[in-house]
Design goal:
The chain has 197 residues and is of the alpha/beta class. It is built from eight helices and eight strands, in the order H-E-E-E-H-E-H-E-H-E-H-E-H-E-H-H. It has one domain: Rossmann fold. It has a six-stranded parallel β-sheet with strand order 5-4-1-6-7-8, with helices on both faces.
């Protein structure tokens, strides 16, 4: 089955779809990570995040596009990574992601057309219903891909979110300005290792 992918480029329709987005929400496991759950000898949960995704989300924050993580699991690793990236909207242990996203959208005074969501599995379909733009990572289950507006080239945990972030900036015509702002931030905060990590 053919799905609309990021690799097909920025069509006029995709630009029009992405331009209004002011909030990018996403699942964590399988989207920001590869979906693996690993425990150390003391029972602590370990997760692996991709640095390119972190830089992409940092870029969106510089562009005043808000980020939200909505996950069905609860993990100290997720809280730590969100804190490093200064992600202020983190909802863990959520069963109904659609209701959570609707509540956040209302709290932020946004309309549905200003909200995008990235997911990979069945429980993300509820959030899709509350989103104006729906992204599936390439390793998503068929039902999620079929419901998506766009499918990333990369699987979750390997830069899929960075692809989305880059396309959002491109659609808004902000790429060059945000690259410049990011580089200036690096110069001004050399000691702040959280910028784009």
């Amino acid at each position: 089955m053919g799905y609309p992918t990021i690799e097909t480029g920025m069509t006029d329709n995709l630009i029009e779809l992405l331009r209004p987005i002011r909030l990018l929400a996403m699942d964590v496991d399988g989207v920001l990570t590869d979906g693996s759950i690993t425990y150390d000898d003391e029972g602590r949960e370990l997760k692996r995040f991709h640095v390119a995704d972190g830089l992409g989300m940092t870029a969106l924050l510089l562009a005043d596009i808000q980020i939200a993580w909505i996950t069905g699991r609860s993990s100290a690793a997720v809280a730590r990574r969100a804190n490093e990236l200064r992600i202020s909207h983190v909802m863990q242990g959520v069963r109904d992601k659609g209701a959570a996203l609707q509540a956040l959208t209302a709290d932020l005074n946004l309309c549905q057309d200003e909200v995008a969501y990235a997911g990979d599995d069945w429980n993300d379909l509820l959030a899709f219903e509350a989103s104006g733009v729906r992204f599936a990572v390439s390793n998503a289950v068929p039902q999620v891909k079929a419901a998506a507006d766009v499918v990333t080239a990369a699987p979750g945990g390997t830069g899929a979110i960075r692809e989305i972030c880059d396309r959002l900036l491109e659609a808004k015509g902000l790429t060059a300005d945000i690259v410049a702002a990011y580089l200036n931030a690096l110069k001004e905060t050399v000691a702040d290792v959280s910028v784009g990590q």
